């Protein structure tokens, strides 16, 4: 994301919050804390709830729905919260507040964190950036599972089941989250969920078999990635459904 004007300082109340609309449909939450400004994802990382409706005392933001909390200066999860907030870099120029995105989605995501730079570089070289409009379908149940995806921005809805017995299996909100991971499993050649963009979204699309080949040449990285993938799958399947 290039440096983008998000709002005026005077738009954000002292020790208060403002939800800002960006071009392309992205929403960003701007917070004032003692005269300093911070910018985060606008929606709660737990469920589809606007954080601007939460409770904020100038230091701690609390989502009113299930009381997840974050330190507003770092976006770190505190209390009951199980996930941090996606953070944007803030620049101030006179009365104007600008934001830029944090690191590359592949760098901030958990799946490939800590692996050797050369291996990560080979994986980055395989990634194709894909922009999707709201309503666009990435894949449906039964489609070949060739590629997996890493969310750069936007929101993806997952639906499992067939015909009228479908049920939502959650939303993806955090930059760096991986989905479509069946492409990294030999035993799962077909999709078991439907993935649809519910707002304009940007993704990295990566061929699963090509990544497995890269990981074969770096067994330490391959072991670390497969361990993380198995805990990620267990986490997703336990409470909600398949991604
Ligand atoms: S929706 Fe925000 S904590 Fe559950």
Brief sketch in words of this structure:
Helix content is 17%, strand content 35%. With 243 residues, the chain is of the alpha+beta class.
Descriptive overview:
The protein has 243 residues and is of the alpha+beta class. The chain has 2 domains: 4-100, Rieske [2Fe-2S] iron-sulphur domain (Rieske Iron-sulfur Protein, 3-layer Sandwich), CATH 2.102.10.10; 105-237, Sandwich (Jelly Rolls). It is built from 4 helices and 18 strands. It has helices at residues 105-108, 117-126, 208-216, 219-237; strands spanning 4-8, 17-21, 27-33, 36-41, 55-56, 60-62, 69-71, 77-78, 87-93, 96-100, 128-132, 137-139, 147-153, 156-160, 167-172, 178-179, 194-197, 201-207. The strands form 4 sheets. Strands 1-10-9-4-3-2 form a 6-stranded antiparallel beta sheet, with no helix packed on it. Strand 3 and strand 4 form a beta hairpin. Helix 2 packs antiparallel against helix 3 and helix 3 crosses helix 4. It is globular, with a radius of gyration of 19 Å. The relative contact order is 0.14. The mean pLDDT is 86. It binds FE2/S2 (inorganic) cluster. FE2/S2 (inorganic) cluster (FES) is lined by residues 44, 46-47, 49, 63, 65-66, 68.
């Amino acid at each position: 994301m290039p440096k983008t004007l998000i709002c005026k300082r005077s738009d954000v109340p002292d020790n208060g919050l403002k939800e800002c609309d960006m071009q392309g449909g992205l929403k960003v939450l701007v917070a004032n804390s003692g005269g300093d400004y911070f910018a985060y994802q606008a929606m709660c990382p737990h469920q589809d709830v606007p954080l601007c409706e939460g409770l904020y005392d100038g230091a701690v933001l609390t989502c009113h729905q299930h009381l997840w909390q974050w330190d507003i200066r770092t976006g770190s999860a505190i209390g009951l919260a199980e996930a941090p907030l996606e953070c944007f870099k803030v620049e101030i120029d006179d009365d104007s507040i600008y934001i830029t995105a944090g690191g590359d989605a592949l760098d901030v995501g958990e799946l490939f964190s800590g692996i050797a730079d050369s291996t990560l570089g080979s994986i980055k070289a395989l990634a194709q950036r894909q922009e999707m409009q709201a309503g666009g379908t990435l894949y449906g149940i039964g489609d070949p599972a060739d590629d997996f995806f890493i969310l750069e921005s936007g929101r993806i809805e997952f639906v499992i089941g067939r015909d009228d017995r479908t049920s939502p299996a959650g939303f993806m909100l955090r930059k760096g989250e991986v989905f479509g991971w069946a492409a990294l499993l030999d035993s799962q050649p077909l999709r078991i969920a439907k993935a649809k963009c519910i707002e304009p979204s940007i993704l990295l699309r990566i061929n699963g078999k090509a990544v497995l080949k890269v990981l074969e040449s770096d067994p330490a990285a391959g072991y670390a990635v497969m361990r993380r993938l198995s805990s990620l799958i267990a986490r997703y399947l336990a409470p909600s459904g398949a991604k």
